[in-house]
Amino acid sequence: LTYSIPIEGRDCVELMDYLGLKRAAILGTSRGGLISLALAATVKDRLIGVALNDIGPYLDPAGLEVIKNYIGRNPPQKTYAEAAAVRETMPGFANVPEGRWLEEVRKQFRETEDGLVIRYDPKLRDAVLDAGAQPAPDLWQLFDAFEGLPLCAIRGANSDLLSAETLAEM
């Protein structure tokens, strides 16, 4: 697999073609939001609208560091219950019910005799680290490509990736 935003955007367009979708609305979370920026700049006519979820044209470097510390790595917790208990140590997640947290943990990891194993391709880590080793591109130019499209942005109150200032500028 090759992880690059342009290739992943092309994959989205090819999937739309395969499904017979002339246009689609996009919900872009995290990397999906970055892909939606590229789609707006390259195939805007294929988009009905975009919802950006906790992502924008400027990514807070501190939030990127948090992601770099866990992406593509198996967690130290050995069971679903242990991983779900982490919420107790994370500020801002006090009101997330344990059942909801467990549901998310089960989606992200597989429980094995040796501990939890991520369910996604660990090579995604390489792409994120490689991108972080390059100067940050100016994504505001891509963001401007949304002009004329219905657009909304969602920012979690505890987001460390999309700052309140960036959201206000958007």
Q: Mean pLDDT, nearest integer? A: 92
* H/E topology pattern: HEHEHHHEEHHEH
Major sheet description: 3 strands, parallel
Count the strands? Answer: 5
Low-confidence stretches: none
Number of helices: 8
Structural class: alpha/beta
C-alpha geometry: globular
The multimeric state of the shown protein is single chain
Helix proportion range:
40-55%
User: How far apart, in Å, are the first and last alpha carbons?
Assistant: 33 Å
Give Rg in angstroms.
17 Å
Strand order of the largest sheet: 1-2-5
- The percentage of residues in β strands lies in 5-15%
SSE map:
Elements: H1 5-19, E1 24-29, H2 31-42, E2 47-53, H3 61-70, H4 80-85, H5 98-108, E3 109-112, E4 115-118, H6 124-132, H7 140-143, E5 151-154, H8 164-169
Parallel strand pairs: 1-2, 2-5
Antiparallel strand pairs: 3-4
Helix pairs in contact: 1-2
Tell me what you see in this structure:
- The protein has helices spanning 5-19, 31-42, 61-70, 80-85, 98-108, 124-132, 140-143, 164-169; strands at 24-29, 47-53, 109-112, 115-118, 151-154.
- Strand 1 (24-29), helix 2 (31-42) and strand 2 (47-53) form a beta-alpha-beta unit.
- The protein is an alpha/beta fold and 170 residues long.
- Strands 1-2-5 form a three-stranded parallel β-sheet, with helices on one face. A two-stranded antiparallel sheet has the order 3-4.
- The longest helix is centred in the first third of the chain and has 15 residues, at 5-19.
- The chain is built from eight helices and five strands, in the order H-E-H-E-H-H-H-E-E-H-H-E-H.
